[in-house]
Each structure stands twice: as structure tokens, then as C-alpha cells.
Specification:
Blueprint lengths: L6 E5 L3 H13 L4 E5 L5 H8 L9 H5 L2 E4 L2 H5 L4 E4 L5 H14 L5 E4 L6 H4 L9 E6 L8 E6 L5 H13 L3 E4 L9 H17 L5 H9 L2 H7 L2 H8 L4 H26 L8 H13 L4 H19 L5 H8 L3 H4 L5 H16 L6 H6 L1
Parallel strand pairs: 1-2, 1-4, 2-3, 4-5, 5-6, 7-8
Antiparallel strand pairs: 6-7
Helix pairs in contact: 8-13, 10-17, 11-12
Length: 363
């Protein structure tokens, strides 16, 4: 990317903000990162916490390219990218994007890492609503390769193309989500399975640890190499997905019907009676989770998968080879492949052997 941004403003120094800062510092040796937050202990907090995200790199060299400030204007005045990780609050996001637009360079890219507030709602107080796009990571972004790029109807193609090219240049795998929806794609997939997991445990069908074992020993390793569409397409043999649905469709529909009925009969909604028992079982099984263990194992899985699929290539080149072109993503026939890509790049690598469902949703 000829005009790859070199000055990146991170707005919000929470877990996601620090993880993104580490990603930029580690993967782009020519960039300068500026972290903005209003917390009074910001300097000490970042200096203490950020090195833990910087693994297998020269930490001291990375930190020479880091600036920390409690002034939003100072952080963004020369930024090529402004990446927001603030509270999941619509009023906050609308207010801060207005302030950012006033002070940032006119050609800066504006990215929100929101988990569910679409750009079309965040940009309501902006003069130029076409500048904002959601770039939603799968936590933690300094390890997980997926970035869901979710434009609003106003977002320009230039902003989309520059955003996709930027992340490809860092060896990540951005997936263009073509229509705004609540929770985007990865969280919709993850939370659908999580609801079914909670329902099964709440009914007494299976316990928390055994359910995690089922996921880790079946879908986890399979989805690491093939998402749901590719997997079931293969399950249909030469007839593909159509054959699979003709043969197994009755069972599929029966499971869907039973799931819907069980969720209703056991009132599986957030903050209802089932939740206390499921949370108790999870706490009893796992206590305080060591996320560093999750991260170490995830790295090993990613490295093994890369070596198997792209022998002798760097992760950056592997990601570039695996990424479909922007033009192809505009072909409606690619929609199942997009969903499969999101599943493989998020759920599969998280639900791998020895990393539990609890660890996934803890991250």
C-alpha cells in the first residue's frame, strides 16, 4: 500500500485499544502510535500494561514509536488513522466522532472498533458521514487475524479500499461485511452457539465442562480449516450442500425447532433464572482464567495452520494470498464464503483443542 498510514491515533486505552496498539507497533515498524485516554494514571497504566501485549518483538524499540496523551486534539491532529475503542454508548460515539472530525486531517481514515453500534448511527453528528467505517476485531486483535470491515451506506468505496489494503499489508484478514446488522457476523455466530450452549446446560442435558469438551473435540478443530458452509458442503459428497440438505435436512430442521422450543420453555434470555446456575458451574470449573495460556495456544494454532496451508510464507503473505479481492466480495455468490471465512478466522481458531468455550467468551 503506497500511502500506508504511519501515524495511528488510538482513542481509548482499554483492553482492545492496547491490543490494537501492540498490533500496529509489532507489525508496522514504520508507524508511530499515539494513545489517547482521559484516565489520570494513563502514563503508568500504559507503560505497565502494554509490554504484556508485545511478544516476540523488540519491546524497547516499539516503545520508542509510542506517544501517550490525555489530549484528544494532540492525539489526532496529524493522524493518518483514528481508531476509536471507547465505551459502547451511542451518545459517546456520536459526540467523539464530531470532535475527531473537527480536529483530524481531512484525509484521515476513521475506524470504530465497536462490538455492535453501526457506523450509520455513530456518524449522525459528522459533517462528512462517508469517512467512518467499523473495523471490528475478534479479541484479542494483536493475535486473532480477523477484522470485520462494516461500512455504512454512506461510506465511500475509497475508504473501504484503503481500509482493506491497510489490514492486508499487516498480514491480517479483513472481511468486508456488506450490510450493517446488529452484532455484525462473528458475534452473531458466536452468540448463537453460546445461547444453545446455555440452553443445553440449563436443561441439565450436559454440564459446562463437558459441553466445552464437545466443542473443543469437534467443531473447534474442524472450523479451524473449514467454516460451516464448506464443512457441510463437503458432508454432502459430490452433491455438495444441496445433497447434504436433501439427506440430513429433516434432522437439521428438527434440531432448529427443538432449539427454539427449548429456549422459549426455559426462558433462556440474559438475566433470567437459568443464568445463575450456568455461571456458578463455569466459575466452579474454571475460576480465574489465565488468558495468557489462551493466547499462547492460539498463536501455536495459527502458526501450524499457516505452515500447513502456505509452507515457507510469512503470515503477511499468507493472509494476502488467502484474502479475496474487493471486487469478488461484491459478487452475491460470495456471501456463503464470507460467512465461512468469518467462522474460520474467529470461531475455529478460538475453539481449538484445550481452549474452552469459557475462555472464548472471557475474551
Amino acid at each position: 500500500m503506497d500511502d500506508k498510514p504511519t501515524s495511528i491515533a488510538i482513542v481509548g486505552a482499554g483492553t482492545i485499544g492496547l491490543s490494537f496498539a501492540a498490533l500496529h507497533l509489532a507489525k508496522n515498524p514504520d508507524c508511530h502510535v499515539i494513545i489517547f485516554d482521559t484516565r489520570p494514571d494513563l502514563q503508568d497504566y500504559v507503560n505497565t500494561s502494554l509490554p504484556g501485549y508485545l511478544t516476540d518483538v523488540d519491546v524497547a524499540q516499539c516503545l520508542t514509536r509510542l506517544t501517550i496523551t490525555t489530549s484528544l486534539e494532540e492525539a489526532i491532529k496529524n493522524a493518518d488513522v483514528v481508531q476509536e475503542q471507547g465505551p459502547e454508548n451511542l451518545d459517546f460515539k456520536q459526540k467523539i466522532w464530531h470532535e475527531i472530525e473537527e480536529a483530524a486531517p481531512k484525509d484521515a481514515l476513521f475506524w470504530s472498533s465497536t462490538s455492535g453500534i453501526p457506523a450509520s448511527e455513530q456518524n449522525q453528528h459528522m459533517q462528512d458521514r462517508s469517512r467512518l467505517v467499523v473495523v471490528h476485531p475478534y479479541n484479542p486483535p494483536h493475535i486473532m487475524p480477523l477484522l470485520e470491515v462494516v461500512p455504512s451506506p454512506s461510506t465511500t468505496q475509497d475508504v473501504i479500499d484503503r481500509t482493506l489494503s491497510f489490514w492486508q499489508s499487516l498480514g491480517r484478514v479483513p472481511v468486508l461485511i456488506r450490510k450493517e446488522c446488529k452484532g455484525f457476523v462473528a458475534n452473531r455466530l458466536a452468540f448463537a452457539l453460546f445461547r444453545e450452549a446455555c440452553s443445553l446446560v440449563a436443561q441439565g442435558v450436559v454440564g459446562v465442562e463437558d459441553l466445552d469438551s464437545v466443542v473443543q473435540s469437534s467443531m473447534g478443530p474442524r472450523w479451524t480449516v473449514a467454516g460451516p458452509f464448506k464443512s457441510y458442503h463437503a458432508g454432502g459428497g459430490v452433491g455438495g450442500l444441496q445433497s447434504f440438505m436433501e439427506k440430513i435436512g429433516g434432522t437439521v430442521q428438527a434440531c432448529w425447532d427443538a432449539s427454539d422450543a427449548d429456549v422459549r420453555s426455559h426462558d433462556v434470555r440474559v438475566h433470567t433464572a437459568w443464568q445463575e446456575e450456568v455461571c456458578r458451574q463455569t466459575q466452579e470449573a474454571y475460576g480465574v482464567v489465565d488468558v495468557s495460556e489462551r493466547d499462547r495456544k492460539t498463536r501455536r494454532v495459527l502458526e501450524a495452520l499457516q505452515d500447513a496451508e502456505f509452507p515457507g510464507k510469512s503470515r503477511k503473505q499468507a493472509a494476502l494470498d488467502a484474502q479475496s479481492s474487493t471486487e469478488a466480495l461484491h459478487d452475491l455468490k460470495m456471501l456463503p464464503e464470507i460467512a465461512t471465512s468469518v467462522a474460520c478466522l474467529s470461531l475455529g481458531w478460538a475453539w481449538k483443542p484445550d481452549v474452552s468455550l469459557e475462555l472464548l467468551f472471557g475474551g
